[in-house]
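User: Predict the complex.
Assistant: Input components as received:
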Amino acid sequence: MPELLERVDLLAQLELARAEGGRLVFVGGEAGVGKTSLVRTFAERVTERVLHGSCENLTAPTPLGPFLDVAAETGSVVAERIAEGGEPRSVVAALLKELQRPSLLVLEDVHWADQATLDVLRLLGRRIEATRSFVIATYRDDEIVGEHPLRVVLGELASARSVSRASVPRLSRAAVANLAEPLGRDAEAIYRLTSGNAFYVTEILASSDDSLPATVRDAVLARAAALSTDGHRLLEVTSLVPVRADLWLLDRVAADVIDNLDDCVDAGVLRAEGSTVEFRHELARLA
Amino acid sequence: MVPPHRRRKLHAAILSALVSPPAVSPDPSRLAHHAEEASDAAAVLVYAPAAAERAIAAGAHREAAAQYARALRHADGLADDKHADMVSAYARETNAIGHSEQTIEALTKAMELRRKLGDTLGEGNHLSRLTMPYINLGLNSDAEKASLESIATLEAIEPSVELASAYGYQGYLRMLGRDNYAAVEWGERAVELAERFGTRTRLLWG
């Protein structure tokens, strides 16, 4: 992974918001622009507990999915409130109690959030100030067009003192050159093709080929092409499990090819974290 | 990336792994997703409604509607009364998120199924529930027609809470038409009948 370029200001903006006390920041940007990398880098710098929740790219995602993730991490009353039905007010109350302990809560891809999760976010934004925690919610700003429910939430929270927004821009021509030139690659051509989309740039730089893959999908497939047939089969199974796959599940469904996991990780296609496996990027899962 | 034939098989394998012990608290939303991708209609009809019920409890009506819609895509083999219940549940959720077109389509379907089953109470009930979504779309003459039909249908059988509710919808329509006298009259009939059943809550539609 190349170091994080052109994100100093954004990291400082996040740091500033965190220093103010209980705050919620929405971090927007197009798919692959580097929201997750930014948040990961930020999370590595903080000393408090880091909690994660992510939304799924499904027509009908699990209600309160991201808070189920949080509940699994904390084993708190949040889990009980959700098990009781998950009425948003009671979930928020439990969450606020949990966030009295200084924490960084990262909620990823809230443009895919279910309605109950959005209700929780709405209430959380209004009441986060009473906690000592910092919440970052990432979203694809190019996907919340028209009457997208997240837009309504962002609009409602626009007046909340403890809520702000940040936007992750594409990499500049200079940043792409910084990454490409040490590798002897044609920076200008790569910039023109990718418009500075960080994921796309990374995928292209990972391919040793001189010819440039015409789409992100091609770039991802080029990376996977180096894998064995069994490696491919493992990728296939993993790609069908939304967002991240539990190792035990892969163990059962793909027992004969699970040994290829390390190869897939080394090739930069999959990422193994704890007891789960995920694609390095959701764009790769869909490729 | 995965060819269709293998895709379906793999989803079936994932589903079966997720529901066999010692799997921990299987999440019906996830199971419904894999069941649909595996083209396993029987499994969809189990998990999608279960996921919808869970979504309703959390107030996630959009997701509940999507789960019922998913179940209805696989409802071909379902008995008429089960089918009618499911369409009706779907209508309730689409109504909750203000999708009036889908609500009208679903209520009409449920009404037809109830009529086919000879269930006059169910037929009249679904007819009367059409009033509000028609009004929401500005289709007031359709609302009027559904309302009057529902009253005629329900008056042909013994008095019911559903009839009280139908009177209430008619009162609301008269109110919209600025016919205050008639509005109050229908409203009073609704309240009087509802009270015979010890409830006024059925009148609180909206």
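The domain at 8-167 of chain A is CATH 3.40.50.300 (Rossmann fold).
Let me know if you want any component modeled separately.
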